[in-house]
Fold:
Amino acid sequence: MKEHIKLFLKGMILGLGKILPGISGTIFAITLGVYDNCIYLIANLKKELKKSIKYLTPIALGIMISIIILSKMVIFLINNYYNEILCFFIGILIESSIIMYRKSKINVKKDIKVFILTLLISLIINIISIKKIITIPNNIIGNFILGSVESVTSIVPGISGTSILIILNSYERVLSSFSEVLNIKKFSETIYFFIPFIIGIVFNTIIISKIINKQLKNNYNKTYTIIFAIIIVSTIFLLMHIKKFFITYFCTGFFFYKIINKYFSK
Structure:
């Protein structure tokens, strides 16, 4: 029971990582020590069914509850304290990146070409995100695509789901849908969004997990080198969005995640 509670709380932290702008929830999963297990169990669902249900259920519940509860709060903070909250997020991102780099024990020099190529691709994607030139329609197919995007960004480390949703002009739509999930008056709108969205997540999660699981086994250093390059670019672009830097909020985020990781990564 104690282990289940701890997994649930880790899921809550991962859920927070899913809705924070520019931050990849999978970085939290790596630093909290659940990423490799989750990928393996999802990729081998039939083979490890009982173990998968026991391990993944509390994490999934934690993620969903965290997103539902914290979505409105995040919207409020971004609308009213944009620079302050962004500094706090950057503090979390940098500390989680340092922890991830140490734990993964990667050698960037070994795959320097891959590192540079990933930096360039990430730069292009982030430049596009500023212009927001792509829009996903608000219909069944569009919501299925958003679910697929959510699946990819939830499994592939280093890619911020919120950044991709911003590129697709869909961040506010997804966050608002989660924040209104308990609103009975908007039940029909919520169902219209969530059914294709969840199908998109489930459909892609198992497939992508198998691919990532294989990559981690065969190309561990290269995979984490790519992740680290993506994180560097994400941090730079988050800093570019800040009009005024608040060192207090940055340090608070930095040490907040240091304490969280010290307790929950055990």
